[in-house]
Write a structure and sequence with these properties.
The protein is built from 12 helices and 10 strands. It is α/β, with parallel strands linked by helices and about 290 residues long.
Length: about 290
């Protein structure tokens, strides 16, 4: 995937009655995400990393720039040019998992129906999605064979079939996040964006989720984009890292280079701000990027 000069601006109330102001979430972002890699996006809250992740799967439309999806045969698809059914057909290849697993799952549906939602909405792999498929989606959710597919998907993320009929509130945080991963993987996507998916979990559960993602990558060859504010967590999983600050890429490269020899003061600040056994080092704050 190639990202070229991506820009995204939002508006918000300015504090004055009836007035709004523009806020640049992304500014001239250019990146290459090689197929089959685990690519980390790291930065503080408000750095633009989540907005970039949402643009990659077309949940947000950039104001300017291009996102090119490179096919194995050498051709390229401009994701910004996709619309309507054409975009819906492509969506199963691009999936995202969100931070807030408690609200990302329908509280009124059992786990098995949650897991197969994507199959119902986007159709079977290799079969062109039609308008009729879209209209019949609510009735397809009652199909018995979908329950079997849900059981296989749960097994792929280490969950037992006895969870199929449970509601989300009956699951632990780690189990809910695994259900969200299963829901994405059942579509056999080629790109999976993980947006702060471990931030609401305890440390031991975080480690298990990271190990699961590493195993999924080895098993499927999927391209993973892992978004987090925790640089050490990103480094434990990712092949390459891009550091974001105020909507811009301030540094990117191999994980070894970013962690071992950071080139910007901002990246060094992120590393120094992580918890340390020495309490004298815990007050460091990242310096502004230059």
């Amino acid at each position: 995937m190639s990202i070229r000069d991506l820009t995204k601006t939002f508006t918000r109330p300015s504090g004055l009655p009836g007035r709004r102001e523009s806020v640049a979430a992304l500014t001239d972002v250019t990146l290459e995400i090689p197929r089959g890699t685990v690519f980390g996006l790291v930065g503080e809250s408000g750095s633009g990393k989540s907005t970039l992740g949402r643009c990659l799967v077309r949940l947000e439309t950039p104001d300017a720039g291009r996102i090119l999806w490179h096919e194995p045969d050498g051709s390229a698809v401009d994701l910004g040019a996709l619309a309507g059914l054409e975009l819906r057909r492509f969506r199963r290849r691009l999936q995202i998992i969100f931070q807030d697993h408690a609200h990302a799952l329908n509280p009124a549906r059992p786990v098995w129906q949650i897991v197969v939602e994507g199959l119902v909405a986007l159709g079977d792999r290799g079969k062109p999605l039609t308008l009729r498929d879209t209209l019949l989606a609510p009735w397809r959710l009652r199909s018995p064979h979908l329950r079997q597919q849900a059981a296989h998907a749960l097994a792929s993320v280490g969950l037992d079939a006895d969870l199929l009929d449970r509601l989300p509130h009956a699951l632990s945080g780690g189990q809910r996040q695994r259900v969200a991963i299963a829901r994405a993987l059942i579509l056999e996507p080629e790109l999976l964006v993980c947006d702060e998916i471990t931030s609401a979990l305890d440390v031991s559960t975080q480690a298990r989720i990271v190990r699961l993602l590493a195993e999924i990558r080895r098993r499927t060859g999927i391209t993973l984009v892992f978004i987090s504010h925790d640089l050490h967590l990103v480094a434990s999983l990712c092949d390459r890292i891009a550091v974001m600050h105020r909507g811009r890429i301030v540094e990117h490269g191999s994980t070894a280079a970013i962690i071992g020899a950071p080139q910007t003061e901002y990246t060094r600040g992120l590393l120094a701000a992580l918890p340390s056994p020495d309490p004298r080092r815990r007050t460091f704050r990242p310096a502004p990027a230059h």
